[in-house]
Structure formats: structure tokens, C-alpha cells
Amino acid sequence: MSTSVTERPAPPPLPRRPGRPGRPGSRTTRGREGLWGWLFVSPMVLGLGLFMALPILMAAWVSLLNWDGQSNPFTPDADFVGLQNYQSLLAEDGLARSLLATSLRNNLYYVLLTVPLQTGLALTLAIIVNQRMLRGRSMLRTTFYFPSVTSSIAVCTVFLFLFQGSGAVNQLLSWVGVKGPNWFQDSRGVLWVLLDALGIVDGKPGGVLAEHTMMGLPFSEWLAGPSVAMCTLIVLAVWTTSGTFMLIFLAALQDIPRELEEAAALDGAGRRHILRHVLLPALRPVMFLVTTLGLIGTWQVFDQVYVLGQGEPANTTLTPAFLSYSYGFDNAEFGQGAAISFILLGIVLLMTGVQRWFLRERGARNPLAKLRKGARGAQD
Amino acid sequence: MFRRSTVAVTACAVLVTTATACSSGFDKSKNGPEQDSAKKQSLRVLIATSGDAETKAVKKATAAWEKKSGHKVTVQLAKDMDQQLAQAFAGNRPPDAFYVNSDQFANYAKGGSLYAYGDKVPDADDFAPQLRKAFTYKGKLVCLPKDSSTLGLAVDTDKWKKAGLTEKDYPTTWEELEKTADKLTSGKTTGLVTTNEYQRLGAFMKQSGGWITDRNETKMTADSKENAEGLGFAKKMLKSGSMKFAKQVDTGWAGEALGKGKAAMIIEGNWLQGAMKLDFPDVDYKIVPLPAGPAGKGTLAFSNCWGVAKESTHQKAAVDLVRHLTSAKEQLASSDAVGVMPSRESVMDDFAKEHPESKAWVEGNEYAQGPVTVPGFTKVLDQFNADLQGLSTGDPAKILSTLQRNGEQAIKKGN
Amino acid sequence: MRRTDPSPTATDERPVLARVPRPARLAGYALLIGFALLYALPFLVQLSTSFKTDPEAASNPLSLLPQAPTTAVFEQLTGSGDTGKDVPFLRWLSNSALVTVVVTLGRVLFDSAAGYALARLRFRGRAVLVTFVIAVMAVPPVVLLIPKFLVLNTLGIFDTYTGMIVPLLFDAAGIFIMKQFFESIPREVEEAARIDGAGVGRIFWYVVLPMSRPALITVTLLSFQGSWNEFTHFLVATQSSDYETLTTGLARFVSGGLGAGTQYPLKLGAALLSTIPVAVLFFCFQRYFIRGANAGSVK
């Protein structure tokens, strides 16, 4: 999924201590060092500039064009349309806006379900694997972590097979007497499925909810919840990411001073008490870290969508990332596609900003710096 | 701070100017690239194959041309034709010759990616006029139609007999279709299987007298009563369970459902024949015309053409290859292998004679509706297909009014 | 009893509380085994299905022992079987291998050089560069799909190996890991070398790098895994099937192909083979992977 920053900028270099050993004539040494420094970073500066910074500038320009990919967009002949691409996505009643709204709806539910589930599961697994009495700890850890290292495409292929209409999952369900849905073909929102099963609504609610719309999408669609197909993507995400987050929790758990637990035990505290009043508070910063990493990552789901249906069924697995790709590469409307990716960039940067802001607010310590130290085995 | 930002801004400016100044990847010369005139050229051909039968047929035909011309051909199979072609055109690395689907044709022709070679073909008049019209842009025949197909109803004859039905019971009206589908649905078999796209379900709209646009494709006619009636009928069958989409029965397309015995009847086109012969040779089936609706018979027609890229450096060789591939002899050969109908009128009679089993498809030509070819319409039709996926619980009128609105916007934007 | 820590440290392994009563413990183990199965079962099903025939995979998707085991899938993938099916697996494999090897070597070199400069060398603009690296890490890769395509195209390296490899060589997260590590090395070591008259290049190459083995291994493994599993970049950087890798080839094969039928044993077999290299590395160097997971990059 994503690579994210969890580290604040390093403090500026310390001023040179006067009494430090160094050779005389430090000016030339410094000049030399500067030369070496630029020599060492120049490939990186060039590479990141060329393949990270420049693309964004180019895409910003293309998002202001009506460009079908069949001409050169960087000439004066380009069909400049100003903010029209953004306007049709956000302000005009039409296909572009309702597609964007659908994809935002889908991704929002994906985030809302995936993040708590993966965090909760990862925490549970970490606490279990951290039990000192447990046999086969490292084997369990390997098992839980393995899905995280394999290729998302390979894993999706397996899920596609498992969740077929007459596939392994439904066969398992049939043993306990449940008739599973045709997962990847089922576009019904789970909320309406549940309410239908309880007899509260019949199929899909009509009336007020169906008539009023927001961003071109009726409220009955906004409220429908993730479709059954989207739920399989959520299961997949939880399954593949919980291992990584488990490791982050595990490192933090092993960093908690043993004395804390022992003191609580001496006071006569039970297991549950220690968990609630010793472990969980100590894990708070890491919990926050994992949650925000999850928030950032889940807004970027793409590979899974590409393999597991490309938006089908009925656009209920469409996400902004895939919509941007499909506008660009399936429809050759690159300007519109670039505009969507900037909207997505805004969302992700907002999440990253929130994370940074909170980590800064929480102040003193950066949880990960501590973790890393722990991982290095430096017991301080 | 001032210094830093100046440095950053200068760096960006330098990057952008250097990068765009030498923007080789996008530049196209006015009259196309300089042509390769070597004796032995290497051509890339990209096809969207309907299955192994078609792949083999194309490879065999190109191999024959290789021998004749001395050039070399690499046939590549597109897994996602639209995406791969769009990327290839934008990246200025198009294959030399490739399939162009009729619903994408207008986009590519408008963007100037196709080399219009119609005037280099002396016997172009032999190709069926309605097909030539579909691949003409601004009065010029751009590419030669590869073949043609129409939709028919394929019936599994074994299941038919087992259900106690005879040849007289082949459905000719909607009511009969509904009744027989009901009768054939049992256990793992679904009466009628098709795919959730307008390229199949649109036939119902046609049979009730409607269609997405008017004849000249300048006005949307999607929200008509006739269209709603057509989709309403499909919805009724979907709801009753006697009709299902291919993916609902765990298959990739309807042909697979027929082959695997999951469907008793399917709506498919000529390509079905080649695929069945190769993948499921033991399944007996018969093609009958699609049942008539309230407005009479209706079916849909499909075609591809052989596009040659404007940016190809082997245009002459590519045109020669295409002429070979669309020659009477090769068309008949590929008809035998794949099942599609020839695009040359002079060969059509031979085909009908040699393939009496395809009679229903051939007859379909008389009343078939061609695809929508408005530039910029792909997303609109994709959305329609996505909406059709939820047809069994959705409201046909609502789906159609969304299509109407989206289509009107696209037409307005395109002009 | 391994900690996340590669070096064995003496940790107190005695439990804080007394043992849980036996029935509860058994129930706990049962639950745990259930969990573990949930994580392992998909891979086991994948393994067994790749030895099944198409009809068996469809009729009995869950059984772990194929009734009539067949290696047809692997023969087909390695080219010794029916070639008409057009799954150029060996081509995908060699493309993936080529790209991965070059990218891994390049990344280790560039990451450690840049990481060292940012951690230790004093030069003008360093603070700006650190901020730049952090800013770059915050850019989500999926946002760059169309932008990257534009750049590759502009530079004329779209649909080439150069276009596949070069943009992957620069990886902000790896630079960061190396920078963190170099900052943890005591300065005295370098100072001693400097007094002996060694220049920056020599110190880096002969003194610092040999000390950095653990970090280098971590970055190597992360780069290998990252570029082997890379999908979105190859998707937009290439178009023709000559440049398909295991990920793009498999993804297109699995998601597209009308009329190709479901062919699940073949798909799962291809996915299985493509997982093996990373799996082998994972089981051999697990602790470095774990360190990588904790080092600020979350895959």
C-alpha cells in the first residue's frame, strides 16, 4: 500500500562544539564535506525531483486541460479549459460528479470498516503473541505476518477463487447452514440487506431517501453501506494488513517496562485490570500511529480494485484511485483523471496532516523513534 | 528562508523547462513518422481475442503473410484492449495494426491516431456498405471491417429434449421465451444466461421499438417508454430467476455457462461457435433468432476493423497485411475457425451456404442495430452497464433517465 | 523465544501472573489455532488447487488433497505443456527478476549514500533536503499514476526497461531508514578514521558501510520485496506485453480475458510461483522483515 512518514524532521545539525577534535584548517574540510554531501545526495535529488516532484507539476497542468492523450499537452495548442475538470467533478450535476460521489462513498465505508477492524485485530494478535507462556509464539507470528509480505496481486487471485459463488468460503458457510451470497457479484448495500432480513425495509428504501440527493447520489445510496462485494475487499485488507500492524504493537508491548506489570500484579490486579490500566494506556501513542497509518493507507486502495472487479458490481467497488486511473487510461480523458487524483491527494494529505498535528500535540516523544530503538535492542 | 524558496522555485523551473523542451515522447510529426522501407520489417499486431480459437486463426493467417511478404509479425494479445490502446496512443508507441472496436472507433479517429488507408484498397467497395459506414470518419474510409456478428439465441438441445420440449417450441415471442426459460430452470441450470451489458440487453430495447439514440446519433432517445418496456421485461425475468447474468453462475461469459451446463439458453453472437468448438466440443446447441418483442424482431450487430496506426513506421506493410487478413480466402478461413461472418458481400453467400447452422445469425443482419459510436461515449455506456448490473432490483425508467442525462451531456461536450 | 530484536538479549521470560487455569488455557489455544488457520488456509487451498484439474477445482474448491493430482498447470506455465494458452509466464518471471535485481542494487547504493549525507555530512541545503524527503514520503503512490505516465512519456522512456527501473531506484523510505541507522552509529568511530587521514569517501566505504550490515540487509530485503511486488508503477510505465512482469501479467490475466474461462488452477499456480521468491527470503530473513515493518514504512 503506502509508504508513510512517521518521523518528524530531524533537528537541525548541532553547532560544532568548540573543543571537538578536528583538523586545523576546518574551512577546507567543510568545503570538501559539502562537495561530498552534494555528490552523495545528487542522484536522490535528481531522481526524486524527476519522478516525484516533476510529475505532480505536470499533472497539475494536465488537470487544467481537455486532453485525450493523442497529442502533446505541453504545447500552446493544448485545449486549456481552466478549472472545468474540477467543476464537473464537484459542482455540475452529471456523470463525473455522481461517479466521484459513488467512489467517495465506497471508499469512505471501506475506511470506516477496515481501520477499526485491522487495528483491533492487530492489537488482539499482538497481545496474544506477546504472552510469555505461549508455545509456538514465533511460528504464530510468522503465520500472521506472512500475508503482509506477499504480492497483493497474488493474494487477490486467491481471494477471487475463495469467494466465488460456489467457492470455498460458501462451501464452508454451507456446513453451518448458511447460504452465502455470490460475493463479487452482489451489489446490494449491506445495511439494506440487514434491514431487509429483519423485515424493516423491502429490498431498497424508496420515498424521501431515494428522492433526495447529495452530489448527484441519492441518500438511499449514501446510506446503503458497503456492498457485499466491497465487504470482501475489506476482509482482504484486514487480513493482509493486520500482520504488519501486529508487529508494530508487538514492538511497543515489548517496550513496556516489566516492572510496571509486576507492580500491578503485586497490588493484586488481575489480567483484565493489567490490560486496561497498564497495557492499553501505554499503547495509546502507538494505537494512534497505527490508526492514522491505516487511514492514510485505506484511502489509496487500488491493486485490489483492479484485480477484483475494476469497480464492478454496479460501481460499488469503485474507489477514487481507480476512477482516476480509469478516466485516464480506459477513457483517454487524462485531464479529468488528473483532477480526480488531485482531489484524492487532498484527502490523503489531510489525513497525513492530522496525523502530524496530533503527534506534535502529543508532544514530547515520537512513538516510533522509541520503537526503533527498541527494535535495535538497545535497552536503555 | 527566502534563499531556500528561491532555490526550490528555480530548481522546479529548470526541471520543467528542460523536461518539456525535449518532450520527445509526445511529439508527433505532421505527416506521420518517416517510413521504414526495409525488405524485412518487424510488425506488431495487437488483438483482443475472444478465445484460443481466434488467437490461433489470426496467428495462422499472419504466418502465411510472413511467408509471402518476407516481413515479420508478432501477434500480441490484449487483456484490456481499450486501456492498452489508449496508453499506447498517448505514449506514442502504438502497435502497427490492431483491432478497433466500433464503439471506440470514433474516439481514435477524432484524436487522429488512425491512418486512413481506405483509398489504398482498390476493392474496398466489396465490403458491406453498413460496415463501411461504421468505419468512415469525415467522409474517409479509415479502416477495413474485419468481420461482422449479430446476436442470436443459443439453445442447449439436450436440455431442451430433457425438459420435454420439441423444435416447435423454440421461442419466437417474449411470452414463449419466458415460459420456456421457466421450464428449463431447475437445479444448477438457469433457463437464460447472458451478460449484464447493453450489448446484450439492448436487444430487448430494440425488440420493443426503442434504442439509446436516434438514427443519426445526434439525439438521445434513452428515456422512451419502449426502452423501459424492454428493460422491464428483462427485469421481470431476472427477478423470477429464470434469467441470470453469466457472473452470477460463476462463469466469465455466457458461452462458458452453456458449455458447463449451467445455462439452457444464452444470448450470444457468432464468436460463440469457435469457442464452443474448441472448449466444449461435446455440447450440442442450436442457434435460433432472438424472440420478437412487441415491436417485432430485433438484434444487435457488432464489428471490428483493422486499424493501422498513424504513428506506425510500417504503414505500407501494415496495410498489405490487413488486405491479406481481410481477403476473401482468409475471411472464410477465420469464419470457419471463429464463427464470425465475413465483412465482404461477395463472400457472404458462400458463408451462408457453408454454415447452415449460423442461419439465424446471418438473417439477423437484415434487422440488426449497430453499436453507438459517439465520441466520448465510453464512460456513459460503462455507467449504463454498471446500472444494468443492478437491474433486478433497480428501476428501468430511472436507469434510462440517468443514461439520457449522461448521454446528452456527452453529446454536448463532444460537439 | 525470539524478540523483534536480532541480537539475543536476556529478557525475563517468567510470566508476571500465575498460569491461567487449564480449561481456559485449552480454550485459548483452540481459538488461537482457529485464528492461525484463518491466516494459513488460503495459502493451503491455493497450493492444493494448483494441482487440481479445472473441473475438480470448480466442484470441490475446499479440499486440501487433490483427488487426481496433476502438474499440468506447472508444465503449462514453464512452457513444456500446451503453448496455445498464451500465458508467457517465463517472460513475466525474467522481467520481474531483471527489474528486481537492478532496482535492489541501485536502491541500496543510493539509499545508503543519501542517508549518510543527510545523517552525517554538513553541507548547505541539508535541512531543506531532509524536509523534501519527508514531503516526498507523504505523497501517496496511487496519486502519481497519471503524473508518472506523463513524465515517462515526456522523457521518451515509456514502455522501456529504463522507464520501469529508473523511477523505482529512488525511494525516500529507504533513505530514511539508512539515515536513522547512521545517526545511531557513534561519531567517535569516524572521527578516529578522520584523524588517521581518511577522506569522506573512504570513511563511508571502508568504515561506515561495513558497520551497517543489519540496516543494509533490511533495505535490500525491503527493496527486493517492494520491487518484486510492485504493480502500479509497471501498470502505467509499460503497455506492450513484452514488458509484463509477474504482477502486471497476472493481474491482467486474472481480471480480463473474456472467453478465456475461469482456469483457476492455472491462475492460482501462477500466483503461487510468483510468491515463492519473496516467501523464501521471508522465512530465511524474518527478523529483518520485522525490523523493516517497524522502521516507519508500512507496506
Summarize the entry for a quick read:
The complex is a heterotrimer of chains A (380), B (415) and C (299). By secondary structure, chain A is mainly α.
Topology:
The complex is a heterotrimer of chains A (380), B (415) and C (299).
Chain A: H1 26-62, H2 84-90, H3 95-129, H4 137-149, H5 152-162, H6 168-175, H7 190-197, H8 207-211, E1 213-214, E2 217-218, H9 219-222, H10 228-255, H11 258-266, H12 271-298, H13 303-307, H14 320-330, H15 334-361, H16 367-376
Chain B: H1 2-21, E1 42-47, H2 52-69, E2 72-77, H3 81-90, E3 97-101, H4 102-111, H5 129-134, E4 136-137, E5 140-141, E6 144-145, E7 149-156, H6 157-162, H7 174-184, E8 190-194, H8 198-207, H9 225-240, E9 243-245, H10 254-259, E10 263-269, H11 271-279, E11 285-288, E12 299-302, E13 304-308, H12 315-325, H13 328-338, H14 345-354, H15 359-364, E14 368-369, H16 378-389, H17 396-414
Parallel strand pairs in B: 1-2, 1-3, 8-9, 8-10, 12-14
Antiparallel strand pairs in B: 3-13, 4-5, 6-13, 7-10, 7-11, 7-12
Helix pairs in contact in B: 2-13, 8-9, 11-13, 13-14, 16-17
Chain C: H1 22-49, H2 54-59, H3 72-77, H4 89-120, H5 126-137, H6 145-154, H7 161-165, H8 172-184, H9 187-195, H10 200-211, H11 213-228, H12 232-237, H13 246-255, H14 264-284, H15 286-294
Describe this structure in words.
- The complex is a heterotrimer of chains A (380), B (415) and C (299).
- Chain A has 380 residues and is an all-alpha fold.
- Chain A folds into two domains: 28-85, no CATH class; 95-189 and 225-376, MetI-like (MetI-like fold, Orthogonal Bundle).
- Chain A has 16 helices and two strands.
- In chain A, helix 10 (228-255) crosses helix 16 (367-376).
- Chain B is α/β, with parallel strands linked by helices.
- Chain B has helices at 2-21, 52-69, 81-90, 102-111, 129-134, 157-162, 174-184, 198-207, 225-240, 254-259, 271-279, 315-325, 328-338, 345-354, 359-364, 378-389, 396-414, and strands at residues 42-47, 72-77, 97-101, 136-137, 140-141, 144-145, 149-156, 190-194, 243-245, 263-269, 285-288, 299-302, 304-308, 368-369.
- In chain B, the strands form three sheets. In chain B, strands 7, 8, 9, 10, 11, 12 and 14 form a seven-stranded mixed sheet that branches.
- In chain B, helix 2 links the parallel strand 1 and strand 2.
- In chain B, helix 11 (271-279) packs across helix 13 (328-338) and helix 16 (378-389) runs antiparallel to helix 17.
- The longest helix of chain B is centred in the N-terminal third of the chain and has 20 residues, at 2-21.
- Chain B starts with a helix and ends with a helix.
- The mean pLDDT of chain B is 84.
- Chain C has 299 residues and is an all-alpha fold.
- Chain C folds into two domains: 22-85, no CATH class; 89-294, MetI-like (MetI-like fold, Orthogonal Bundle).
- In chain C, helix 1 crosses helix 14 (264-284), helix 8 runs antiparallel to helix 11 and helix 13 runs antiparallel to helix 14.
- Chains in contact: A-B, A-C, B-C.
- At the B-C interface, helix 1, helix 2, helix 3 and helix 11 of B face helix 6 and helix 13 of C.
